[in-house]
Amino acid sequence: MSNAIPRMTNLFLQLGLDADEAAIAQFIKSHQLPTDIGITEAPYWSDAQRQFLSEQIGSDASWAIVVDQLNESLHEDAVKAQSGL
Q1: Which of 42, 73, 76, 80 allows an S-S link to 85, with CB 3.0 to 4.6 Å?
Q2: What is the DSSP letter of 20?
Q3: What distances in angstroms separate CA 63 from CA 17, 34, 58, 77, one per listed residue?
Q4: In a structure prediction context, what are the per-residue pLDDT tens digits for the chain, which is 85 residues long?
Q5: Distance (Å, rounded) from C-alpha 51 to C-alpha 18?
């Protein structure tokens, strides 16, 4: 694992995804999840990506905060719809 500082761009690099701001925004916009699907249950992750995300959340590692931020972003539309916003 890399010693990269946990930031959203570095998380995307760790996941092997395009990490520029526009690509991150587009990924989040096009990969929204319903509230009942956890980030690690999303169908679009590879096994390696899913394992990395699970390990970071489970170990409460420094990456956990950034993974949680991604999780919140991926559920944003569903949460807004649920709350009537």
Answers
A1: 80
A2: S
A3: 16, 23, 10, 23
A4: 456 677 999 999 999 999 999 999 999 999 999 999 999 999 999 999 999 999 998 887 788 999 999 999 999 999 999 887 6
A5: 19
Which residue matches tokens 């807004």?
80
Contacts of 66 (CB under 8 A, 6+ apart): 6, 7, 8, 10, 11
Structure tokens at 50: 């899913």
Instruction: Decide if 73 contacts 30 (C-beta within 8 A).
Output: no
3 state DSSP class of 50 = helix
Identity at 70, one-letter amino acid code: L
